[in-house]
Write a structure and sequence with these properties.
The protein is of the alpha+beta class. It is built from 13 helices and 40 strands. Helix 1 packs antiparallel against helix 10. The longest helix has about 35 residues. The chain is globular.
Length: about 700
């Protein structure tokens, strides 16, 4: 009876697998639905709603540092492995010799004093790109000292729902350039402290994944835009997911670079400006690093000269910036020409995506102490070599970036500013969907239209309805079978005393199938044997066989049971894995919607293993026992059909002896002299349920 339930579960699993094979995302969606307790949700980092900074107006995020928590505002760094915050000394004259602004603490996003934190573990002062700490924007000249330590780090303002992790790398600093406000690192490379025995500490982002607080090692980010909408569009940062309301989908898939210090690299196939005329701004394609720490776009000198000609830019040698006077700024804002970056996985050919930046994305306003006096500037930098080619935070105002480190890919899309309701989706780790066919691409995060996504629900519904109908039919058959069998038992019920011990002679060539929990060894010897006339039977537990289940075949004179005076009985255990709806790779493989599942039982075959007997001995033994059994009415012969089994055996008849009832392969001992089994052909085997 349990086998029917097991069969239903197998068919449910098969139906789910069939649907997921045709529509790979269905299984991932089903996993999300039925494993909400095991798959964490994406984390949306709340923006501060402030636009701040000395090199432009940038959208920031709230984070909490130390114990008690100090709330500070920072920008996101898509490459940094550490979180950097401003020390109180950053608002002293020693840090800003030209004079400390009256609003310095607020303008720098608040400061963090490590002396006030009871959980601060000091690691010492290190250069940002010194020794084993090197790599972070070193190509752009980022090199200054920070006070490193380990402390509590949380996202958002004080909230019990926001994740808070201990022993995270916090680097506090003073100087206002190049980081006026602090940053939250999204990088994956660990921070290594060489002076302390090469201690390695995971980044905050990796720690979130290691503690399974996010569904995958992925994030999505767009820098926001102060010039969009009526009061600006805030930045968005999501760990383990993406928001389809914030970008225009495309089909371009980029691969992460092996160099973790410059991993998010795109091919810039062309740059052109569209205003009164369309002008090419890039004479030859290049590869560029997409990174949000630096606000500038770093391009070859030839491209910078082309920008100068189109926008009327003038390089200022003192500040090393393209400064804009008020007249220029107003004129360009009025015409608002669009600059288009055409990106691909390589510098030529293949699918491409266009990211358009209006002039207002370039018209940044700098303030003291970044420049002596507040002024507008154009965030374009002259790169000295190819290692400096970078699309910085300015670019990410109009671009939406999703990075999946587990699958090694990322996407860049045109950001949108529609104020639509958020449509956040999870990016599921391959740990959860390794069988869904999405292991080589970002699961549930491919760029597809909402129209395509809407078809997943009806498909899943159709599959589940079909499975539900089949399960209901199976239950009806199960109860009909049970009632029929109970009636037969009531009719033929015999007491245990009426069934004598069954010797090897009586068993003949039988193979008994029963249900039994999973056991260890495939072949297991029993105590049943007959040597030198000393008859030993099975143990009572093995002989508790209802009489109505014992079926003998009516044999002709040419076919006799094969038995020897001395033979050994072995159990042939057909072991199959536990059948569950789901995957054993999940955290809780025996739970479905919080309902415990009992591991399924497995059918067991007991085979009689023997060598051929003398014909005379077997003929005499057969005649004697057959006559005795028929006289006592203990055995009811049924006509045997070659290649088939009794009516209760169902589809088990005719199955290859090397395959279990659930279709699992078992070892083939047909060539072993010790294991000449009675299951060598279907005509020699009876199956009982």
């Amino acid at each position: 009876m349990r086998s029917i339930h097991s069969g239903i579960r197998v068919l449910v699993l098969a139906a789910t697998r069939l649907a997921s094979a045709q529509y790979p995302k269905i299984e991932a969606e089903l996993l999300l639905t039925r494993n909400t307790a095991t798959i964490p949700a994406p984390i949306i980092v709340p923006p501060s709603e402030f636009f701040e900074g000395a090199d432009g107006k940038w959208s920031t995020f709230f984070i909490r540092v130390g114990t008690p928590a100090t709330v500070v505002r920072v920008v996101a760094s898509t490459n940094s492995p550490l979180t950097a915050v401003v020390r109180p000394q950053g608002c002293l004259i020693s840090a800003i010799p030209g004079g400390v602004p009256s609003n310095c603490v607020d303008a720098r996003g608040e400061t963090f004093n490590s002396n006030d934190s009871s959980t601060w573990s000091n690691q010492g002062w290190f250069g940002l790109n010194a020794g084993l700490l090197g790599g972070f924007e070193a190509n752009l000249g980022y090199s200054f000292y920070l006070d490193y330590g380990l402390d509590v780090l949380g996202l958002g303002q004080q909230s019990s729902d926001a994740p808070t992790l201990n022993n995270q790398t916090i680097a506090a600093y003073n100087r206002p350039d190049p980081l006026y406000v602090g940053l939250l690192g999204l990088g994956t490379q660990p921070v290594i402290y060489g002076s302390f025995g090469n201690i390695s500490v995971d980044s905050y982002f990796v720690s979130l994944r290691n503690q399974e607080l996010v569904p995958s090692l992925s994030w999505s980010y767009t820098a926001g835009a102060s010039y969009r909408l009526s009061s600006g569009q805030s930045a968005q940062l999501i760990f383990g997911g993406y928001d389809t309301s914030r970008y225009i989908s495309n089909s371009v898939e980029f691969k992460l670079n092996a160099d973790v210090t410059r991993d998010i690299v795109v091919g810039i196939q062309s740059i052109f400006s569209t205003g009164a005329t369309t002008t090419n701004l890039l004479d030859s394609p290049i590869y560029a690093f997409v990174e949000s720490t630096d606000p500038n776009i770093w391009l070859p000198m030839s491209a910078c000269l082309a920008f100068e000609a189109v926008f009327g830019l003038v390089w200022d040698n003192t500040t090393e910036k393209y400064l804009l006077n008020t007249t220029q700024y107003l004129a360009l804002s009025a015409s608002n020409p669009t600059t288009t970056f055409r990106l691909g996985a390589s510098t030529s050919g293949g699918a491409t995506v266009n990211v358009d930046l209006p002039f207002t994305a370039f018209g940044l306003q700098a303030s003291y102490p970044f420049v002596p006096n507040a002024t507008y500037y154009f965030p374009l930098q002259r790169a000295q070599n190819a290692t400096q080619y970078t699309l910085g935070r300015t670019f990410l105002q109009e671009a939406y970036l999703t990075v999946d480190y587990e699958r090694g890919n990322f996407s860049v899309s045109q950001a949108t500013f529609t104020q639509a309701d958020a449509q956040v989706h999870s990016i599921i780790s391959s740990k959860y969907v390794s069988d869904s066919g999405t292991s080589n691409s970002t699961a549930l995060a491919t760029n597809e239209s909402e129209g395509k996504k809407s078809s997943v629900g009806p498909i899943v519904g159709g599959v589940l309805v079909g499975v539900g109908v089949f399960v209901a039919a199976g239950e009806i058959l199960f109860w009909c079978f049970r009632r029929r069998k109970q009636a037969q038992q009531n009719k033929d019920e015999l007491s245990r005393a009426d069934v004598p011990p069954i010797t090897l002679d009586e068993l003949g060539n039988l193979v008994h199938f029963g249900e039994q929990s999973e056991m260890g060894s495939l072949y297991k010897s029993t105590s049943g044997s007959l040597c030198n006339g000393n008859v030993q039977t099975f143990a009572d537990a093995e002989l508790d066989i209802q009489r109505e289940l014992i079926k003998r075949n009516e044999l002709g004179t040419e076919t006799r049971p094969s038995e020897l005076p001395c033979e050994t009985i072995h159990q042939l255990l057909i072991v199959s894995p536990t059948v569950e709806i789901g995957s054993d790779r999940l955290q809780k493989p025996h739970e479905l919607d919080s309902t415990p599942l009992t591991p399924s039982t497995h059918l067991r075959a007991i085979g009689i293993l023997r060598s051929p007997p003398p014909e005379q001995a077997k003929r005499e033994r057969y005649d004697r026992h057959e006559a005795q059994n028929m006289a006592n009415g203990r055995l009811h012969p049924k006509r045997r059909h070659s290649g088939s089994a009794s009516s209760d055996s169902g589809s088990l008849a005719g199955r290859s002896p090397s395959q279990s009832p659930l279709g699992h392969t078992i070892p083939d001992h047909s060539t072993d002299t010790e294991f000449q089994t009675a299951t060598s052909s279907p005509s020699q085997v009876l199956y009982f349920t």
